[in-house]
Every structure is written in structure tokens, then in C-alpha cells.
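The following block was generated as part of the benchmark described in Methods. Ligand: MF3.
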Amino acid sequence: MERSPQILTPPEVARARVTGALVADILQSLRQRAAVGTNLLDIDRWAQEMILGAGAQSCYVDYAPSFGRGPFGHYICTAVNDAVLHGLPHDYALTDGDLLTLDLAVLKGGIAADSAISFIVGRPKSPEDAAMIATTEHALQAGIAAARPGARIGDLSHAIGSVLSGAGYPINTDFGGHGIGSTMHQDPHITNTGRPGRGYVLRPGLLLALEPWIMADTAKLVTDPDGWTLRSATGARTAHSEHTIAITDSGAEILTLPTAAVA
Ligand code: MF3
Ligand code: CO
């Protein structure tokens, strides 16, 4: 992560739009298929079929960063209830009221896009789940609204963090958003709280993945014995919302919105 942020050319941004729409449509379609009884390994297989069927490549299968054990080996992150980040798909059938996060990044035309959604499977268990999901979505919108040429990364972090802490949630600063481009994880790192007026100055052609996530009553994570899945230390439930955006001449464009065909 020492290299300076990648600035995309207009043709590259055009390809980023294609990748972004693909990621969003796959997530939307998985959200519609996921039901009580669906196995996380089914979701992983459906993701694999859609990624490869679209002529895209997984950013996850061979990914072996320092924060995980060996290559991820799967096509999508599936995090249930107290699991929040890097959820490794495993043999588990969804039950009524599960809070599911799907996080997907793929590469197509040489450009990556990354997005995550959280939602309830079946009947909601408590209003707190919906409130937590809505808070990460609002924080994401606030981060996007702050993104424009001349703004600094700290302005986005501050906008995101104000919504999260304003709603009463603790914020973990170990994992946050990131630059993205020809690879999934790039500089700059975007913590989910921070001081305005600090950090890298945004410019047109920069792609960012913003990803507010929270745990109901703690900022502390524990790693699952699988070596990948990160869970809340208290067992509390969690939520995560992520979009990839492109900085444009006038503001920011969300690249990971589902197209009309799927929405
Ligand atoms: N897409 C995730 C992010 O939002 C990273 C997942 S890495 C994996 O940054 F290896 F767990 F897949
Ligand atoms: Co990301």
C-alpha cells in the first residue's frame, strides 16, 4: 500500500462503470435468491457462476493478504450475524432472521469494483438490526456526498464517522475503505472516522471504495478459527455497506448501483 493513488483515464472510468454494474447486479440477484435454508456455499457457487459467466475474474479466490490465512479460496464474503468482515463461506444454512452481509469485488476489463450489502433473511428478529443497517447506509451516503475534487480523505472519514457515532455506535479503525483501480485494495486508506481537512486531496479519475461497518456494542474484532472471518468480540450483531465511487469533475458517481434489469 505504498504506491500513490491510481488516477484512471476516461476510458478506464468507462470500464469501471461496467465492472461496478456487474458487481451490483450480482449482489442484487444474490440478495433475491438468499432465503431461509439457503446454504452459504450455494451463494458462493452462484457468485462464481455469475462472475465467470460475465467474463470477469474474482478478486478474492487467490487473494492472500496479511490479515487472512492463505488464499481466500472463495468468490464472495458471506458474514452472518456477529460476523462482519471477510466472512469465509462455509457449510451453513441461513435461518429466519439472520442478518447477512455479502461483500463482492471482481475485476473486468482490467478494472476492479467492490461493494457490500447487509440485509435480513426472512422475518426480522429485532428493530435494532434494521436500524444498524440503515445507519451504515446513511454513513455511506454521507461519505459519498462529501466526495468531490478538492475534498480530502479526512472529510469523507469525518462525514462517515459522524453518522456512525451520532447513531451511538462505536467505530473500529483497523479496517475501512480504500482506493481501488486495476487492483482491489489501493491507497488511500479511508478510516471510518477522522478529522476533516486532513489527508490526500481527491481528484477526477480517482476510484474509492467507501465501506462503513459497525458492531452493535463494541469496536473490538476477533478472528474466527477459520483464519479469515472477523466477528464482534461480544457476539453482537453487525452491519456493513459499501459502494465503489468515481470522483468526477463535479462530484462523485456511484459505480455499484444495480441496473434496471435486476433492481
Ligand atoms: N471486499 C473486501 C473489502 O471490502 C475485502 C475482502 S478481502 C477477502 O475491502 F479476501 F476477504 F475477500
Ligand atoms: Co472494500
